[in-house]
Structures are given as C-alpha cells and as structure tokens.
Prior knowledge:
Shape of chain A: globular
Largest interface: B-C, 80 and 75 residues
Strand content of chain A: 15-25%
CATH class of chain A: Alpha Beta
Largest sheet of chain A: 6 strands, mixed
Strand content of chain B: under 5%
CATH topology of the largest domain in chain B: ABC transporter involved in vitamin B12 uptake, BtuC
Strand order of the largest sheet of chain B: 1-2
Distance between the termini of chain B: 67 Å
Oligomer: heterotrimer
Order of helices and strands of chain A: EEEHEEHEHHHEHEHEEHH
Number of domains of chain A: 1
Helix content of chain A: 25-40%
Bound molecules: adenosine-5'-triphosphate, magnesium ion
Largest sheet of chain B: 2 strands, antiparallel
CATH superfamily of chain A: P-loop containing nucleotide triphosphate hydrolases
Number of helices of chain B: 27
Helix content of chain B: over 70%
Amino acid sequence: MSILEVQGLTKSFGGVAAVRGVSFTVEPGEMLALIGPNGAGKSTCFNMLGGQLPPDSGQVLLQGQNITFLPPRHICRLGVGRTFQITQIFASMSVRENVQTALLSHHRQSWKLWRAADTHHITEAEALLYKVGLATQAARPSAELAYGDLKRLELAIALAGQPRLLLMDEPTAGVAPAERAGLMDLVANLAREGQMAVLFTEHDMEIVFSCADRILVMDHGSLIAEGNATSIRANPQVQAVYLGTAA
Amino acid sequence: MIASLIQLLTGMAEASSLFLVAAGLTVIFGVTRVVNFAHGSLFMLGAYIGWSILSRMPRDPEYFALGVILAGLATAAIGAALEMTLLRRIYRAPELLQLLATFGVVLMVQDATLHLWGPEDLTLPRGRWLRSAVVILGERFPLYDLILIALGPIVLAIIWMIFTRTRWGTLVRAATQDRDMVSALGVDQRRLFTSVFAMGSGLAGMAGALALPEASANLQMDLTAITDAFVVVVIGGLGSISGAYLAALLIGILQAVGIIWLPKSTLVLVFVVMAAVLIVRPNGLRGRKLTAARGEADTIASIKPASPSLKLAALATLAIAIAAPFVIGPFALSVLTEMAIAILFAASLHVMMGPGGMASFGHAAWFGIGAYAAALPVKLLTVSMPIALLIAPIAAGMVALAVGALVVRLNGVTLAMLTLAFAQIVWAVAFQWSDVTGGDNGILGVWPPSWAGPQAMYFLALSLCAGGALLLRKMLYAPWGFALRASRDSTQRAEAIGLDTQRLRLTAFTLAGSAAGLAGGLAAFTKGSVFPTTISIGHSVDALVMVLLGGVQTMAGPIIGAIVYTGLFDALLLATDLWRFVLGAAIVAIVLIVPQGIAGLAKR
Amino acid sequence: MQLTRRTLLAASATLAAPAIVRAQGSTPIRIGEVNSYTAAPAFTLPYRNGLMLAVEQVNAAGGVLGRKIELLIRDDAGKPADAVRLAGELVSDQKVDVLAGGFLSNVGLALSDFALQNKKLFVAGEPLTDALVWEKGHRYGYRLRPSTYMQAAMLVDDAAKLPAKRWATVAPNYEYGTSTVKWFKQLLLAKRPDVTFIADQLPTLGKIDAGATVAALEQAKPEAILNVTFGPDLTNFVRQGNTRGLFENRSVVSVLTGEPEYLDPLGEETPEGWYVTGYPVNAVKDAANLAFIAAYKARFNELPKMGSIVGASLIASIAAGITKSGSTDSEAMADGFAGASFATPFGQATWRAQDHQSTLGTYVGRTALKNGHGEMVDWRYVDGAAALPSDAMVKTLRPA
Lengths: 247, 604, 400
Ligand SMILES: Nc1ncnc2c1ncn2[C@@H]1O[C@H](COP(=O)(O)OP(=O)(O)OP(=O)(O)O)[C@@H](O)[C@H]1O
Ligand SMILES: [Mg+2]
C-alpha cells in the first residue's frame, strides 16, 4: 500500500486558488520531490498534509487512514514528521534540549512533572544530533545556530518522532551549497534504512535530480508533471514554466 | 422605560470623550508597540496644564480652543521627551518592559503633579457658552456635549486625513503594518517613533484639557483614564483608530442606557463588554492580526539552570529567611511574611508569562479568589485553617481552569486584557455581593488558630510559598515545563512533534491560578482580613511589576523581583512622603540599567 | 473560634509587655496615625496640617500628663490591607500608645478590627460608617466625626419640611454612600410616610458618568434629590446638573457639600439653596473657631478646611482622653476615654460612654453663591448629641 495517498486536494485563500485538485501518492522508502516556481502552492500542500491547514476539498490518506482534518499533533502521532520552510525550533533551549523535548513527546512523557527534562534520553538525543552533524553543537543555545544548522536541528527534531513519512519544506534553503548534497544524502540513507518515505520541496535542481526517486511538478496550484529525473528534464511543459526560470 | 434621545446623545458625548483619550494610545501602540501605561498621566497633565493656561485666559470660545491646543502641544513635548529619554532606550528590551518603565513614570508624575498643583481638585470657571444648553424634545442638553459629539468624528477625520494624505502618515501606516518595511524605505525610524509618540501624547493632553469644562483636574484621573483608554483600544482593535471610535461609541451608549436599567452596572459594564467582544473577535472590532512586535525574537533567550553562585545566594537567602524571625521585630516579620507571599504570587504569574508566554493583567483575580475562598468558609462554616488553605488553591484553580478554557487560545495583549476583564468582574462580585463578601468593608477577623502566632504563620507562609515556588520551578524544568516552553517558542513546531499546546497552556494557566490562590489564602490568614482591593487592577500590576523587575527570563527573576519590590515599597513608604516618586524613579532606573531584570545582573 | 482568638490575644499581649516598660514622664506619648494621604490628598493634607498644629499647641501648653505628644504618620494609599500592616508597624516597632486615623470607611473598619485584635486604642477621625461604633463597635474603638446616621439625621429635619414627595438619591457605590442613603430613607420615611423614593443612582466612586447619571435622574422626574457624592464626582455631577437644569425647581439635600474641600472646587457653579452639612469657615464668628482659624492661617497661610478641624479635634480628643484616663495603658484608656470632654474649634464635645461616638457636631445650612464662590448661609451648628439616636436604639445596634 502507498504510505500516503492524496486525492484532489484544493485550497484557496480569499479567492486566490493556491492549490487546485492535487492528487499523488508516496510509496514507502521513496524520496519524492515536489518542485515548482515560487508561489506554486508547495508549502500550502505541505500544510494540508501536516494538518496545519484544512483543505477546502480533497482527502489525505495515511496508509489508508483518512487524516484530512486531524490536527497536526495527531498526524504526528500517526508517524508523520515535518520541517518547515521557515525553520521552527525551540529558541529558548539548547540544541540537545530541542531534540530531548521532541523525544519526550514521542515517548509520551511530556506530562511528567518531576525529573528534570534534560536528564531524559540523552544518548538517543546525541545519536540523532550525530546523525545530522550537530554532535559538537549539542550544548549550544539553539538561538545562536547558523541558519544551515537550524535546518539540521529541525531535521533531528523531526526524526526524533521516528516518522514513517517525513515532509521537508525546502530542507537545504540557507544551507551552504557545499553541504547541501551531504545533508540530502543523509536523508536519503535514512529513508532507505528505515523504510521512511520522504516528500520534499526544493529549489536546487541538482539536489532534486540527484536525490529524488520521483519528481512532482506544480505550477499555479496544479500538478503539471510527474516522473523520474530524466522524464522531468525532458518535459517541455516543465521547461516552459519552471526550468526556464530556475537558476 | 425606553432610552430617550437625550440618553443616546449623552452616551455619544461620553463616547467622544473616551475616544479622544484612546485615540492617542492606539496610535502609539500601533506603531511602536509600546504598552504605554503613562498615557493616563499624559491625560492628567493635559488637564492640569490646560487648567493653568485656560484659567488665565478670557472665557471666549476662541481662547478655549487656543488653550486646548496649547495644552496638547505642551503634552506632546512632554511625550516626546519621555520617548527620547526613556522608551527609545528599551525598544529592543523584552516585551512589556515598556509597561514597567511607564508604570514608573506614572508613579513619578503622580507625586510631581501633587507638588506642582497642590492637592485640591482644580475646576475651570466656565464661560456662558460652556454652561449653555440647547433644548431637544423639551429637554435641555449641554451645548458642550453637542460639541464633543461632533469633535469625536472630527478628530477621527483629521487623524484619518493625516494618515492617508501626508507622507508622514503613509509612513506611520506602513510602520503599523510592517515595521521592517519602514527601515527598508530608508526612513529614520527613531524620528518616526518620536513624532508618533508626540502626536499620541498631544492627543491625550488635548483630551485632558477638553475634559475641563465638565470635570475637575484631579489626581485620580490618570488611572481612571488609562483603564478606560485601554479597554476602548482593545475593543476597537489595537492600532485601529476607527475601531477605537466604534468601541467608544459602544461603551458610551451602553453605559448611558445601562445606568437607567441597573445603576450599579457602571462598576463593570465596560469590562463585560470587553470580555464579550474579545471572546467573539479576539482582534477587536476592527483590528487585524498583529505582526510580531519588534525585537520579540530577542526576548526568548535561552534559559539555563541556576549557576552555582546563584544557588549559593539562594541558600544564603533561605538561611537568612529562616533565622530572621528570631532576631527581628514583629513588623519586620510581617514584611517578611508579605515577601514570602509575594514570591509565590510573582512566581505563579511567571509560570504563565515566562514559560507559558501568556501575559496577564489580571493575576490578582486568582489571588483574590484564593483569599475569599479561604476566608469565607472560616467565617461562615468555621472551617479550620488547614482546610481553608486547601480550599484556596483548589477554588482558584477551578475558576482558572474554566476561564482558561475560554482564553488560552488567544495571545498577547488580547489574552492579557481578557484576564484583566475577568479580574474586574471578580472584583465587582466581591465588591457588590455585600451579604456574602462584606462588600468594600471586606471580611475581617480571619485570624489563624491559636497555635499559629505571627512566627508560626511566617514559617507556614515561608514553607508553603518558597516550597510552592520551588515546586513550580521543578515542574518548569521537568518535561512538562519543556513542553510548555516549546509551545511558547513555536506553537507550530510543538504541535508538529505531537504536543497539545492548548492543553499545556491551560494547565499552566490553571496551575498559576491555583498557586496564586494559595498565596491569597495565606494572605487572608496572615492579615486577618480580605478586601476587594486584593483583586484590584493595582494588585495585578504589582504582580506584573515584580515579575518584570526581576526578569521574565529566569526562574529566579520573579523571586528576586518580589523581594526587591516588596522591600523597596515598604522601606520607602516609611521613609518618605514622596515614596511614589522615589519608587517610580527606582523602577525607571532599574529598567534602564538592567533591562533584562535584576536577575539579569547575576548573569553578567 | 472565640476561645482560640482570646488565647491568641493573651499570648500577643504577653509578648508585647516587656517593651512597654519605660520611664514615664520623660518619654513622649506616641500617637500613630494612618491615613490615605496619597489616595485622598484633598482632604488628608489639610487634615494633616490640623494634626500638626494641634500637636504643637498641646506640646507648647506642656503636653499631656506632663509628657509631650509625638505624632507618627503613615500613608496607606487607600488600601485597607496596607493600613493594617502599617498599624502593625506603629504598634509593634514604634510602640505607639494610641492608634488614630482613617479616611475611607473600609480602612477605618479594618484599623478598628486590628485595634480590637491587638487591644490597642484606636481613635477614628474621619471614617463615617456607623458600623465603627455600632455593629462592629468595641471597647477599644472610638470615632470622632458625625457618622452617616448623624449626617442624615441633621439634614432630615429640613428635608421633612420640604413639600417634595418624590425623592431620588445619588451616592457613591460603597459603604459611606449606601449607608447614608439607607439612614436618610429610614429617617425621612419615619417623619414623612407620604414620601416615596423613585430612583437610586450609585455611580462608582471616582468614576461617575455624570451626564448619564444626571439624565437618568432627570428622567425619573423627582421633586427632590439626596446627593451623597463628594470630591471629583460632585464637581462633575454639579456641572452636568447645572447645564441640564436638574436642580431647577427641585430641592436638593446634600451631605458634606458645605465642607470647603468639596465646596471650593464648585466655585461659581455652586448651586444655590442646597441643604448641606459643612463648615462655613468664612462666616463663623465664635471665639473657638476664630482662634483656630487665626492660628491655622498664621501657621499654614491658608484657611482651614473641614479636614483641618477633624485633625485638630482628633488630637484634642486624644489628649483629653489620656488626661482623663491618667495613663497611656490601653485598658485604662479604653475605659477612661468614655465621658472625656474636649475643646474643638466647633466648641466643646464629649466621648459618649455608650457607643464611643463623640458628640462633635457639624454645621447645617444652605449653599449660596457670593462673589463667585460657594458659601454656606442660614447655617447653624448642630451638636452631635442632638443627632444621635436614642440610647435604647443604640443598645440594639451595638453588641455588648
Ligand atoms: N496564509 C495565506 N493567505 C493568503 N495567501 C496565501 C497564504 N499562504 C499562501 N498563500 C498564497 O498561496 C500561493 C501558494 O503559496 P505557497 O506558499 O504554497 O507557495 P510555494 O510553492 O511554497 O512557494 P515558495 O517556493 O515561495 O515557498 C501563493 O500565491 C501565496 O501568496
Ligand atoms: Mg513554500
């Protein structure tokens, strides 16, 4: 079964149609890229998958279960992790504490009132930070991190929930070009090892073509193409609306 | 009885008066995001300055207009000076710090006004035209009220023109919507802020002078004006001028009509209206969702556990607190008891404000509910003190849970003002329900049992309050506290990792209410009495001041703040007639020297 | 309950005892005074002047029991809880012999309760609530000013003579206001059963919405009005009333309005012909008043106000009480004050033994406008004793 099945998702903001009838599936262990020019509707799509926005119509099925109007926290509990286009982390905490907080939530320990939070899941947290390459920064206040490191931290937070499906909205934006490939390889490896599916948006075409197993192309709220790197590269419609304008 | 036309017109005149005070506040808030507590003081200064000018001038209308404008200009100058010397230095400081600074200014202005103009209410002799009336449907209606009715919309129109037709106004509107855009346009933001502050202050001053024909210049008008103005601004929608006018109209007319149906309703009517409006429309009648206030990101600094030196200081303080009663006199003991209670009161507010991210302007509500919930069973059912002290936090917590369920989904000033509205409603109940609560005479004779003398009560208060504060601290460092902070730092992220942010906030709200309730219960027994003043706005402000003075950033902040504020207050009260001025100056100085709060000093 | 409280008191009395051992004669008698100085400066600052003047006079005349009087003043900022705390400081740290003060009724009651708990004599100056000497009266509590009952009683004779049958009232929404209205209604109805009260306005203290209040009263079309508001509320009420003609062809009875601190701000808008209690400071001619006014003017360079009278009389009443008691022991004073007679600028007054209310009276008259200033005319001094209810009635009102 597909891990995620999206059917006819539609959303408009006060008359502006941001997403129009988008349907696709995500298969287990797959790296799926969702690309499109600015304002195409990618983030809006993500927000409907993650529960941040209610769709106007359409359905989202997670392994057959309808999660369309569930709140984000329920969707998370069903195994969907995500990162945001504008990174969202807990700025008042240290890097490790950010991950610990996520781990505590994952282990359903967030309502504990006694033992200090930062004594929980230390090894697990450090292992995650090691994975994303932040091991040396664990004790730093997260607010001090460089933007690229924030992206890594957010990834670690999302991974703490051991998701079956990871949604990443522009995971490498702001990351130094040299590090982008490494970061995405890491994600790809995790996906293959853990049978975790990854749906990501990305403006860096090199990354997209090298990492993605499959690519979806959006424009003006609609899906206009779907396929592997070669077919997308060759698609004239995609070239017209997208590749022509991309760097 | 049907509300007559006269009643309606009276309400509209009142609405104009309200609007004139509120307009300046909303302009200032919209652009600078300063919660200017001193707006009422500027209004009062406008009235006094206006009196000084107008009582020396002929009584003709043209001189009156001139005098009002002069008073407005004078207050505008004072406002500009205030902005340049004080507020400008703390724009980047934590949210609400401006509230603390301007609270200091309020105290200073109160004493300064008393000493400049004397204690007597100053009334402006009215010229014939100001005393005359027009006959409407057989009833007399003051000409000046008609002028006021017209003046509201006229001022609204003038402000609107300035904002839409001038370059300066365009910049101000741009700044209201998006601060960064203004700096992007290459405009000197400092000059813009100063001029906006001057304009808002000038409006307040003109409103003060315009109040003179129908009221005296007196030393209580600052606090009356500031609450009214805040309510109007919040109901109208923060930063919305036309919203402020609509809100003033709503309140003015409801008040004028309500006074016939239920004369006592004036006690809380505005707050009930505010609560109703905000629950239905959190952004007010015409407000929109605000962009993040300037510097807000900076305010979320990391929170580190206490350093060894701080722990040592805490232990030393505790040791002193335990040894002190054996050395000091009874009054000093009562001050220490007061401090202990203040610590829990402040620490409980801090749970909400700091890690919870929910500022409250009505924290005294829980304190008061706790106090009454402890005192009433003792008086009515002769319940024993330990049980009463158990009832206090439970009662306060339960009410907090119910209120919290309504309000925790809201944010920022809206949430803070709703707590204020609720506190005022509780206050009104305590005040008005005399059969049970004793009304303004309060409940007297709530003394502890014989085994608990002042010393025993001190140790009880110390153990419960210090223990309570430490327990709260413990919880904030536990997973729940982290989850709560996570919800504050980023609601989206918190929800995306599976946290129920609303419920976390609700538990924090309830816990804070409950802890404040315990503090209130203890206060009832250590003072032997409970009065509605424990629920007053002033008492809520005390809690805010303590937290902000100590620093929201650290867990030690509210404790230090409570000790310093209570100590300073008591010391000054005994030391000088000018205690308000000195206390205000001290607060301003602390704000300027350590914007992060006194606890911030320890961090350096 | 009762038992436990007594035990506590006994305990605290023993604790306090050793400190009271001090040389008689050389040490001053300490009077601790708590009042709402910053919250109600218009009344309390002239009041404080009165206190200070009287203390200077008493000390210049050799003091009391051969000891000087020392006055310690505290500001409660209008908050009863703070008043109680400061009273604690005065009693336990400053070891004052007598507590005095109070402006608002609730503060007065709180101080009185504190005095009872601590077995300390408390002499209330200004607080007008009857509860101070009746429902909540006790052995250690005395009160100087004519109470709300007495103020109402002083005005009700004139009110009863008015032809008006339909009355409306306006009073600040707190103890003083509601209790004055209650007594006035009761006393007037006793004299005039044909009278009806058709509207009661209860504006929030300090926050009157004068236009709406006046419009509401106007709408009720009363023939006469009882006003109990004072201070800024009164000013606003009078101005709106004048412009809207509320007072034309209507009788108005108004409590405290003749007191200079409230009458002066009305200035040329002083409505004429109101029946008021107050103090015609410009018109009194008797020796006691003139002497006080002269001394006050010499000292402070202004005319005394009602507050000044209360302050000066308060000191005089305490001095006389201590002299009669022959000691500053609380128990001795609690008994000894009763029946003590003292001189005030208004003449001689006495502490009633029955309810510890003084017989200090006040002036009743009508308002008039002279040279742009409000004044009292047709005034007479009403001795407090004449305005008090029968002893039998007091007995039912005051717990044993
Ligand atoms: N909350 C909102 N209110 C109104 N319009 C919105 C909102 N969010 C998105 N839009 C509009 O919907 C459209 C799609 O936006 P979306 O953020 O989904 O694009 P995107 O593909 O993620 O673009 P980018 O590559 O720039 O991130 C845009 O036109 C955007 O302006
Ligand atoms: Mg996007």
